[in-house]
């Protein structure tokens, strides 16, 4: 149905995809996996015609619909906020949908409190993504291409989407860090190897793929050890022959030694590949100084957007070292609250006050602190506090976040979502804040990096206010207190509230 032929792609002379040949058959459900920055989103953009390959071609006569990874950023900046939801889908997207059909899908996607007559601009970012999903799946294309579709979805909507993809009659190609999605809706895995820049195809779901890769790694390590023994034996034999007087034996010694050294060079390269694959991100959040006991006091805080009241009457007091989770469904005001507390948005009423010696750090869901048009290194050098570290220390920090020295001048806009997240976390780490506002920091991270972030937050001695839609992450984060929205109730955290995270 879709043929990927001899595909090669580079970014700033850095090889991303190398001579890839793949086929998507009718009705296949394919999960594309690989580490952050391997080139998954790039491959999807080439398949959907957004990017042109350096070499090779995509051969297809199939209809394709595509949900891109950074859809939220694009939606939030669009020019259609004055249209109703129905007008947006019918007039802008060109879909042949009746109001009752739109309402049906909105109910499926947990936007039942809205109607097709509501203004598109009145929706939250997450709700807009749901409308965008409706626009894509109702096209019923031959190939549905989804890049991290569950990133901004609540749990009920994500579960509905999983069921929908499982039953979808046509082909699906999806990138997702939601392992439940991979296991329930996928029957083939494409693994984009960041070392070889090739795509390896495996039958089965994600769990089956992981088991195979684990066995494959064990086989490879054993094979390399056996081969290394043989090479060392060849070198010993060559050295023995070299010590004899016969010219023939000396010639034979030189041949054996040359062959052994060539094989040793190959072995060293293969060992380097294994070591590179085992590298993982390192995060060490530390505080430069200790804050006062009273960290934050919020009184009667409220915020409106036009006639819509998002935050009504927030009251809370947070003390040093407390870990607070904000829980509420999409569009209820979680991001708005953190934007206000970070000083990036003005409240309409009420007050908030940070205590003595508070050094505030903010991770924004939309990665607002990054300059997409500039390089990785300049994003640090333009930051007053980060630039004081000096270029050498900045390079060391970027290495901790898996950015090699040759990528320092790469434009941030060419990074994957996961790489942008790692870069934003790296910048945040250099600030040495004693209070962190974290708005969905795991959104674009692969599962291994999510666990590394969680571990670093659990070792951090400062105060954390966290927004997360991931129940497992919240459970292991072990909050002290919770702010429940829309009730606007601030209380001690109990395990029973984890159900709210799952539902919302």
Major beta sheet, strand line-up: 5-6-7-3-8-9
Highest CATH level, the class of the largest domain: Alpha Beta
| Low-confidence blocks of residues | none
The total of helices stands at 17
What is the makeup of the main sheet? 6 strands, mixed
Q: State Rg.
A: 26 Å
Helix content bin: 25-40%
Categorize the overall geometry.
Answer: globular
Mean pLDDT across all amino acids: 86
Describe this structure in words.
- The protein is of the alpha/beta class.
- The chain has three domains: 208 residues, Rossmann fold (3-Layer(aba) Sandwich), CATH 3.40.50.300; 63 residues; 153 residues, 3-Layer(aba) Sandwich (Rossmann fold), CATH 3.40.50.
- The chain is built from 17 helices and 18 strands.
- The chain has a six-stranded mixed β-sheet, sandwiched between helices. Strands 14-15-16-12-17-18 form a six-stranded mixed β-sheet, sandwiched between helices.
- The two termini are 38 Å apart.
Outline of this structure?
Helix content is 40%, strand content 22%. The chain is of the alpha/beta class and 504 residues long.
Q: What labels describe this entry?
A:
504 residues, alpha/beta, Rossmann fold, 3 domains, 6-stranded mixed sheet, 17 helices, 18 strands
What does the secondary structure layout of this molecule look like, with pairings?
Layout: E1 2-11, E2 14-24, E3 29-33, H1 40-47, E4 55-60, E5 64-67, H2 71-76, H3 85-92, H4 99-108, H5 125-137, E6 143-147, H6 155-167, E7 171-175, H7 179-185, E8 188-192, E9 199-203, H8 206-242, H9 247-277, E10 294-305, E11 308-319, E12 323-327, H10 334-341, E13 349-354, E14 360-363, H11 376-381, H12 384-387, H13 391-400, H14 417-429, E15 435-439, H15 447-459, E16 463-467, H16 471-477, E17 481-484, E18 489-492, H17 498-503
Parallel strand pairs: 3-7, 3-8, 5-6, 6-7, 12-16, 12-17, 14-15, 15-16
Antiparallel strand pairs: 1-2, 1-4, 8-9, 10-11, 10-13, 17-18
